[in-house]
């Protein structure tokens, strides 16, 4: 308002004010009446100016539209009372019982009093905000009116809950198996997929992102789109047990492998029992199944190259390996269909994204372990042709020549025991 008065004063001063216009007028009563009229009109013009300015600025300071049910009202009166099992499954990708189980598991991390000056959402609502976003991948601005909070609060909930999931749930549902658990994984993998002496399948998960301009080349993968890369290992049930996330999409799978914790575990012998179990009459490490983008090692098997002639035994090996390797491809489909945040990460920082990927994979295991129903309609949002998977082959120089004996041993097994 002071700025407006100053502006008006300068304008009137430049014009000379009412005194200049009244110069030469000798009638004093007329001069007083004219001054009263002049200042009245000036006051009206000033008020009009201030009102117009306030109207223009209001759209910048009050953009938020609140829903009819706000905050606890909508949560308590709609979600908790009116949501049916199908609603819980559709919005949270899990049953109501599993949702509150997750809340209770996260309570030690999320129940601490906040130092923020404003009221904090109850724990269950914070988890609901985060899980809703991870499941549906709708924008913060769309979710915020449902819970009567701002978009920044939604963002904070996603960050806070994701860290809590990785801290408290990941050690329970996504961890390195014990020696006894590895033996059970071998039995399950052989029974379900017909591939012996195997503890899982290995592959890469590319999560599409909007890369910063100065990092575009680093995150542009071999298919020409930007992504963050995660190396993932699953068991015969399609549950994740090792994940290394956060690599730029331009990195090759073989390079990621050499820089992952899985590589360290294998070199230290922590992926295999002591002493080694026997297979086909010889002590042999457990194996993981990969594709052509991984190096051939005595603990990683991949198909024979098909750019040349192959024997019937080698063709049989390739068929059996690819069939068994499909367990991780199916797991990726279920993961991305259930947690559609992974289909396109537009509003997540690169620093937070590895944690959110780990949180989604952990929640995947929670839902699978608790037999939460999976709706096949969720798969309709996945369009494989939109983001074709980068899969450049690993250099042959990285292959271990001694691993050929392991592959030949598997060929001998399949030939001896026939079709599984």
TrEMBL record:
A Pfam family assignment: DDE_Tnp_4
Alphabetically ordered keywords of this record: Hydrolase, Metal-binding, Nuclease, Nucleus
Keyword Nuclease on entry: yes
GO molecular function terms noted in the UniProt entry: hydrolase activity; metal ion binding; nuclease activity
Entry cofactors: a divalent metal cation
Domain of life: Eukaryota
GO cellular component: nucleus
Main localisation: nucleus
Keyword set includes Nuclease: yes
Subcellular location(s) per record: Nucleus
Record-stated family: Belongs to the HARBI1 family.
Protein's UniProt name: Uncharacterized protein
Organism of this sequence: Chelydra serpentina
